[in-house]
Protein: Anaphase-promoting complex subunit 4 WD40 domain-containing protein
Organism: Aegilops tauschii subsp. strangulata
Amino acid sequence: PFPAATDLLHISYNQDYGCFAAGTKTGFRIYNCDPFREIFRRDLGPSPAAANEPEAAQALHQPPVAGGGGGGGIGVVEMLFRCNILALVGGGDAPHYPPNKVMIWDDHQSRCIGELSFKSPVRGVRLRRDRIVVVLENKIFVYNFADLKLVQQIETAPNPKGLCSVSQQPGSIVLVCPGAQKGQIRVEHYGARKTKFINAHASRVACFALSQDGRLIATASTKGTLVRIFNAAEGNLLQEVRRGADRAEIYSLAFSNNLQYLAVSSDKGTIHVFNLKINVGLTTNDKPLPAPDADVPHMSPSFSFIK
């Protein structure tokens, strides 16, 4: 069964949208999308760092987390396609791990094989086969997956939602995050070694999405009336669609795999699906994604894959 709404702390899809992970007050669960079924769950016991939490909180210059950190709460869980490696961050009233740490979990060994520590709570994590991206409220850290070496630090505007998107097809990496100014997004093209700033909206950016091939970006502002689609490489506006005339909080934006449609969900209890009037032949890469066991990072002596 799916966890009760009061127990649910986090939901995220894997990179090919074939699975999703749910972080709960007691651990995490992995689900298959089609057909829908629970694949496995891990109910975590008391935090291994519970006894040291006051010292850890003191080092962060903040009070201990309510609840004593003695529970199994997972506030962020990110899958790496369908392999046994996940990224976990403690969350809720009784986090299993400190909220300022990213734990690399090997489910084959049922233990953590690496960790990344920060001076403030982690707002989000994104995984590629070759990168780990950690989002804090005002900064983003990019690491090599294989050796956890820091590649880049990016300063952002306040980002409490942990907004960040990373392309998933092999080859050049594209990363999108909030810029330093209101209404701005920043696009990092690692293959071309260039940074592009796009002034997407007059008001603050509330949500954005990056296509899997890293070529299209959809953005919405805090007004929630318009959604804009940009070319990631050049930053030019390709299309603008109107969700409605009244203000709305945009929860999510999602491109279809063939880039023919864009879905928009909001606090109005509706999902809008728009046709994209874009020359798909010029913006898509027809090469299929590699099998999930290709080019995975070699942090662990063994990898298994979810069927």
Remarks:
- The helical segments are 53-59, 280-283.
- The chain has two domains: 1-122, 160-294.
